Amino acid sequence: MKKKEIFLLLAIILLAFALRLYKIDRPIADWHSWRQADTAAVARNFVKDGFNLLVPKYDDMSSQANGLDNPQGYRFVEFPVYNAIVAFVWKIAGNTEPIYARLTTVAFTLFSTIFLYLVVKKLSDLQTAALASFFFATLPYNVFYSSTVLPAPLMVSSLLALYFFFIKWLENDKKRLFLALSAIFASVAILTWPIALFFFLPLLYLSFNKYKWSFLKKVELWIFAILSLTPFIAWRIWMLNFPEGIPSWQFLLNDGNIRFKGAFFRWLIAERLGKLILTTSGFALFILGFLTKFKEKEASFYFLWLISTVIYFVIFASGNVRHDYYQIPAIPILAIFMANGTKLLFSYKSLNIQRIILPMLALFLIISTYAFGFYEIRGYYWINRPQIVEAGQAVDQLLPKDETVIAPYGGDAAFLYQTNRRGYPIVDRPLADFVHQGTKYLVSVDVSDSSIQNFAKNCKVIEQTDNYVIIELSLECIKK
């Protein structure tokens, strides 16, 4: 890289880092705190109990995940690569404050920004690479989610690194180090979030583009595929030994037959792409980029990347409608098309329009994207129920460390996570059963609820304030 190019990329990285410092120390009680709490709990239990990557555990002992009791708190979803890294960072930091987990995610996103730049520069040019990495680094939606405690940013980072090293290997297939790195990052991406498999389609194109149909006979590619998939397959087979720890996931495909219904298109196109992620202005830049002519090689790669994203949206239809963090993997390719659309508006010399109009329009669309985007995303940072943090800290100070607790919060484990205890985020059985099983403490932030008031009246109250109450249950008091 030339010095100017290094300076440009460094400026984007520094800007990306600075933006993600906004409320970086917020507790795990912000938007999608339920998923963040589950992820963080696995990491925290690695710190508490030791690193056993083959048997990850979180704090939720309830049956809500799949209808089966889970007294050991098994958590078998993605392989806990991200969780283990966060736990390692916490070990170094000497505490399990959320800020260190969030900064870990930020670090992965900074690597993603670099690899996106390198991939796009390889396929396109410096201007497109700089604009794509800039949009990726600064879109408010991506700024928020790349400072959450979620594994998705690690998957994106691994996927972009995979693309880069695979392209480097194809440039000189004698350099097998690049192929080995590709296989490592491919495996990490799939283990971190299996939907990474959808994004292997561009790799098939690159292989076919170089070797034509003989790519099917290329031994190195078969080795790459085996190394990429074997750890994931082994993990999935191992998971079957712990059925109580495997959450139900089938509803993420097409729950309510939403696929291709009007609501499906409304949520993904209008609400997510057109309002939350790109906003109306950014979506206009994306459409312009989509309609702009690419060079043949980059066009095939980018459009197959985009098609992979669409296929993923369609297959996991209800998952993408229910959860807006499911669109995190789409950000790199959306940023690339936005970059191409922006370039079109600035390439006024080839257009029969006054030279000042289109650049001004581009700047207006870019500024509007960030203004509208931050307006939509700002509420995601808010702690709407700070009482759960206050109550959780009280539980952690007042109750023995080995006690389990009931912290009902509609099934959301964010409240339970604040207590630093294992237990139940939902009342999924009679209270007498909890007591028989050894869980005798109930903490609630719904102090005005009639049932909670009745328990507070008849049972032993450990502590009560206007915001929360901690109650010790017994078989005698819960019958009153």
From TrEMBL:
Q: Name one GO molecular function term.
A: pentosyltransferase activity
Q: What stretches pass through the bilayer? A: 99-119, 150-170, 177-201, 221-238, 276-294, 300-318, 330-350, 356-375
* Keyword Hydrolase appears in the UniProt entry: no
Residues spanning the signal sequence: none
Which terms are listed as keywords in the entry?
Cell membrane, Glycosyltransferase, Membrane, Transferase, Transmembrane, Transmembrane helix
Q: List the lineage, top down.
A: Bacteria, Candidatus Curtissiibacteriota
Primary site of residence:
membrane
Q: Got a GO cellular component term for this one?
A: plasma membrane
- InterPro entries per UniProt: LipidA_mod_glycosyltrf_83, RgtA/B/C-like
Domain Glycosyltransferase RgtA/B/C/D-like residues, every copy: 80-238
- Protein name, UniProt field: Glycosyltransferase RgtA/B/C/D-like domain-containing protein
Annotated GO biological processes are: lipopolysaccharide biosynthetic process
Q: Membrane topology for this entry?
A: Multi-pass membrane protein
The organism's place on the tree of life at top rank: Bacteria
For the keyword Transmembrane helix, the answer is yes
